[in-house]
Amino acid sequence: MEAVPARARAYVACVAVAVLLCLLPLPAVRTPWWEVALLAALSAGCEQAAARWRFAGTFYPVLLAGAFLLPPPAAALVALPGALLSPVEQRPRGLRRLWRAAQLMMSVWAAARVHGAVGGRDAVVASDFPYALVPAVVAVLVFCLVLSLLDGGILALAERIPVRRAWRGLFLRSLAPVAVHGLAGLMMAVLWRSPYGPVAALLVLLPMCVSWWVFAQYHRERAAHQATIRALVQAVDIKDEYTRGHSERVGQASMMIARELGMDDARIEVLRFAGILHDVGKLGVPTRLLRKDGPLTPQERRIIELHPEYGHEMVRGISFLGEARAAVLHHHERLDGSGYPYGLTGGQIPESARVVAVADAFDAMTSTRSYRRARPVCAALEELERCAGSQFDPRMVTALVRALSRYGWHPAVTADEPGVPRPRPEVTGRPGARR
Q1: What b-and-e string marks burial along 83-106, b requiring 16 or more CB atoms within 10 Å of the CB?
Q2: Tell me: the pLDDT tens digits for 346-365?
Q3: Rounded to 5, what percent of the chain is helix, strand, coil?
Q4: Is residue 187 within 8 Å of 204, Cβ to Cβ?
Q5: Taking the domains of the chain in order of start, what are their residue ranges?
Q6: Which of 247, 268, 398, 271 is closest to 323 using CA atoms?
Q7: Under CATH, which number does the domain 223-416 receive?
Q8: What keywords tag this UniProt record (predicted)?
Q9: Considering only CA atoms, which of 402, 412, 400, 404 is closest in space to residue 355?
Q10: How many CA atoms lie within 13 A of 98 on its CB side?
Q11: Backbone angles phi, psi at 170, to 5 degrees
């Protein structure tokens, strides 16, 4: 069983007790209990469908419809079966189910309480849709706020994350999806109280479920992409232990450059892939050359210089990589035409390759290798600026300098990995002379 700090357990217990106190007026609540049972069954069914589709998240429209239709204690019960029956992979499973149930019930109770206080339930009963919108927006904001506060609290106590960092951005990140679910929940509630009844309200779930399934498929495909890239990188790291972690750091630096250049999120992600996979062709290079101490012979260097072409052959059939494939092939080209494999010059070199070339050289100079010590970041940046215009694209160098001045650079130290020999004094030469 995974250890959960005592203070986190106490926090879960306190939230559960607070929920029980919110449910105390339940015996006096006048509500059609068949509505509570039907909404609870719908919520549980959606949770089971989410688990089957392997979708990370909770389907909130039914819960929010309950908040718009029912008194607060009854609305809170709608969340209980789905939370308790949802599958949990990590242990302790019972505690995690209890926490999920308490968190959702408290959030739904608060949303229902606020919604009723601002007159939202009367507007729903009257099917007065435009005027029902404002109370629903207020309730959705409260629901999202309570969820975020409780999430931040458990993160701070269970993961020992600083409080401000645990809550930072939680509300804003969850607001958009919860708002969409809230609109669907309001449509369900208005139709539920209309002459068309609950059957019409259930039709609202059909397009939501279809869009949810499509979104789940997207995330599944994205996870498969990540797994493919991770497997390739791990294979390179095992083969070339001196540069373990290098690929991830080049991906990080490439992403920083791309962001600084104002590229869109999709392209930034592709350039991160390019940085991560730029050395995948080393799988085709003899291991003895990759692990050789000391300088390479001209013949050995020619063999190693084949790795961009090997890498391109490996990844050219992976369609989701897009322009990352060109970066894998051309990241050792130089603006003056002295690079390899094809000696391209200036604008002939793809932009993605020019980004990765700067990121690769920067990490190579700031990482300890078997044949030289790491240079300080400032010294590496000075060397990149010195070679800008001849070896590197000046725009990419400037973008990296600006990004590092804002965010800094905190990579893992490759030499700290077990089994890596202690480095010898630095060998002077061109940036990334043995990358």
Answers
A1: beebeeeeeeeebbbbbbbbbbbb
A2: 999 999 999 999 999 999 89
A3: 70, 0, 30
A4: yes
A5: 6-203, 223-416
A6: 271
A7: 1.10.3210.10
A8: Hydrolase, Membrane, Transmembrane, Transmembrane helix
A9: 400
A10: 17
A11: -60, -45
pLDDT at 426 over 50: no
Look at the block and give the residue holding tokens 């804003």: 172
Full-prediction pTM beyond 0.85?
A: no
The segment with the largest mean pLDDT, out of 103-107, 121-125, 246-250, 412-416, is 103-107
Backbone torsions φ then ψ of 158, nearest 5 degrees: -80, -40
CA neighbor of 266 nearest in space, from 315, 328, 321: 321
**Burial degree of 9 (CB within 10 A; 0-12, 13-18, 19+):** middle
For residue 352, give the 3-state DSSP assignment: helix
Cβ–Cβ contacts within 10 Å for residue 229, how many? 22
Give the dihedral sign, CA 379/385/390/391: positive
For 380-407, the pLDDT digits (tens) are 999 999 999 999 999 999 999 999 998 8
- Residue-wise pLDDT for 125-143, tens only, equals 776 667 788 999 999 999 9
Out of 135-139, 192-196, 304-308, least confident range: 192-196
What does the alpha-carbon distance between residue 406 and residue 137 come to, in Å, rounded to a whole number? 37
With a cut of 80, say whether residue 373 has pLDDT above it: no
Write out the two tokens for 52.
């089957």
Share of the chain above pLDDT 90, in %: 41
Q: How far is CA 133 from CA 5, 61, 68, 122, in A?
A: 42, 15, 11, 12
Whole-number Å distance between alpha carbons of 356 and 251: 8
CA max distance for the chain: 88
Residue 326 has pLDDT above 90, yes or no: yes
Round to whole Å and give the CA distance between 274 and 328.
6
Separation of first and last alpha carbons in the chain: 44
User: Would you call 111 exposed, middle or buried from its count of C-beta atoms within 10 A (0-12, 13-18, 19+)?
Assistant: buried
- Cα angle, residue 147 at apex, residues 213 and 30 outer, rounded to 5°: 90
Question: Which tokens go with 289?
Answer: 């050359």
Cα–Cα distances in Å, from 303 out to 293, 339, 391, 432? 16, 15, 21, 16
* CA–CA separation, 309 and 302 (whole Å): 12
